[in-house]
Write a structure and sequence with these properties.
Blueprint: E1 2-6, H1 10-22, E2 29-33, H2 36-40, E3 50-54, H3 62-72, E4 77-82, E5 98-101, H4 106-124, E6 126-131, E7 134-139, E8 143-149, E9 152-157, E10 160-165, H5 168-175, E11 180-184, E12 187-190, E13 194-197, E14 201-204, E15 209-211, H6 217-230
Parallel strand pairs: 1-2, 1-3, 3-4, 4-5
Antiparallel strand pairs: 6-7, 8-9, 8-12, 9-10, 11-12, 13-14, 14-15
């Protein structure tokens, strides 16, 4: 994972760097920049998974920097550092994921950083399997749900579906630690694609309706609320 942090104030730049280091993220590179122009001078798509920008910087603000980044890279997670909560509204135009207020309690700071890393793991992590001597790879964010039946697994994505020989319990073992939840026997759903939960069903982002098993209802509602509030 490559992370860029941009702040014209060395104190806050070093503070954020140290907080990220304390999280002990595996295979993580953290690069510091003191201005948006420094970052943009050599930025190419895919260089970073996460960029954390100070909103108030001279010459080129964090919001202006983010606008230029978005012209190059639509996937990178952009978050902002700021002293003022009112700047948060402006970040929606560049798809900001999180605003981090400076000088806030440590536990809040850590919680926000953890949510950014969790989003990164979900957005860029892939699921790989073999089918008929071919290897397939899908980003987790593109997966709607899995359905297991006997020794086969059906994978439903935003672009279509595919069936392959596999073990549903193995899929659950790999993905339940991310934003996936079992909603019925043999059905594993991506929480990121749930649009609504009714009394008996969940409705996915593509409009598909899937029934919720009675024994799973309380757990799926609790996990989805926790997931939604965490974002």
């Amino acid at each position: 994972m490559n992370i860029a942090i941009v702040d014209d104030e060395p104190v806050f730049l070093k503070q954020l760097h140290n907080r990220l280091r304390e999280m002990k993220l595996p295979d993580c590179e953290i690069h510091e920049f003191t201005s948006g122009r420094d970052l943009l001078s050599f930025y190419v798509k895919g260089m970073y998974e996460v960029i954390i920008l100070d909103v108030e910087m001279p010459d080129l603000t964090g919001l202006q920097t983010a606008e230029r980044i978005r012209q190059i890279d639509g996937s990178v997670i952009i978050s902002f550092l700021t002293n003022y909560a009112e700047f948060a509204v402006k970040g929606y135009d560049v798809g900001a994921f999180r605003y981090i207020l400076k000088n806030q309690p440590d536990y809040v700071y850590t919680k926000q950083l953890n949510s950014i890393i969790a989003e990164c793991q979900q957005r860029f992590r892939t699921f790989t399997f073999n089918n008929k001597n071919l290897s397939f790879k899908f980003r987790l964010t593109d997966i709607l749900y899995f359905e297991g039946h006997r020794r086969k697994v059906s994978l439903f994505t935003v672009n279509g579906e595919l069936e392959y020989g596999g073990d549903f319990s193995t899929v659950c073992g790999e993905l339940l630690k991310y934003n996936f939840a079992i909603i019925n026997r043999g059905i594993l759903v991506n929480l990121d694609h749930i649009q609504n939960i009714t009394k008996y069903d969940i409705i996915l982002s593509n409009g598909r309706k899937i029934p919720i098993g009675k024994t799973y209802k309380d757990e799926i509602v609790a996990r989805y609320l926790n997931y939604a509030t965490g974002r």
